């Protein structure tokens, strides 16, 4: 059987894969008017669905929204977030259907989270206490950071927690396949709070739950926020080799 490295050469393949992985980053400013052709999205999804899944259950469902469908969802969720920001409705009206983050944060996670938040606000020139600017940035999530395409990932509620791992693998494949095609992405759990509105707008069957969303498009090369480089711990911090 031919392998890709038969054609590309092992060094070139390693370089291409490593380069794609290491240059992927979360983009938070997209070119609003540069559409992504549907055939490219279909290509990306066809490759990405080679992701592994427990007993090959392939539990992912992907809703691709653009054009009017995207506009409707953006408008509805932005209105809800505005109403929360103005105090017209309580934030608890819109609860995630599963807890992504812990209720009680501890070190080192809280430290990394804070570092990440301040680095992002720093890149956007938002100072501590500038709540309105922070809220405005949070709201950009619900415009897909101007990306012309949004993806929503759902799963059948009968599936176990492992299905979320499968979907995460599918999502990573999408991010890498996109990157290799000159596109960028931002995974977005922010939408999960508004899952009832999203599921209604995408006409998802009642048995489906929202797992995550993703912005997809061409990065705005002039946006400072896209220059944000996130650090990673050294491998000695997270790995152990047991002989
Ligand atoms: C499952 C998941 C959900 C995320 N949700 C959001 C989000 O809602 N909004 C956002 O701006 N970034 C979101 N991120 C991006 C993370 O902040 C980002 O991956 C992290 O800071 C590392 O940076 P990098 O992706 O540029 O390497 C999410 C990432 C993951 C993996």
Number of strands: 4
CATH superfamily of the domain at 27-98 and 141-220: NADH Oxidase
N to C succession of SSEs: HHHEHHHEHEHEH
CATH architecture of the domain at 27-98 and 141-220: 3-Layer(aba) Sandwich
**Bound molecule types:** flavin mononucleotide
- Classification by helices and strands: alpha+beta
Q: How is the quaternary structure best described?
A: single chain
Query: Describe the biggest sheet?
Result: 4 strands, antiparallel
Measured by DSSP, the beta-strand proportion falls in 5-15%
Describe the fold and architecture.
The protein has a domain at 27-98 and 141-220: NADH Oxidase (3-Layer(aba) Sandwich). Helices cover 43% and strands 12% of the residues. It has nine helices and four strands. The longest helix has 20 residues, at 67-86. The chain starts with a helix and ends in a 5-residue tail after the last helix. The structure holds flavin mononucleotide.
Furnish the topology, listing elements before pairings.
Elements: H1 4-8, H2 10-23, H3 38-48, E1 61-65, H4 67-86, H5 109-123, H6 131-140, E2 149-156, H7 162-180, E3 184-188, H8 195-201, E4 208-217, H9 235-238
Antiparallel strand pairs: 1-2, 2-4, 3-4
The structure holds flavin mononucleotide.
Flavin mononucleotide binds at residues 25-26, 28, 116, 141, 186-190, 212, 230.
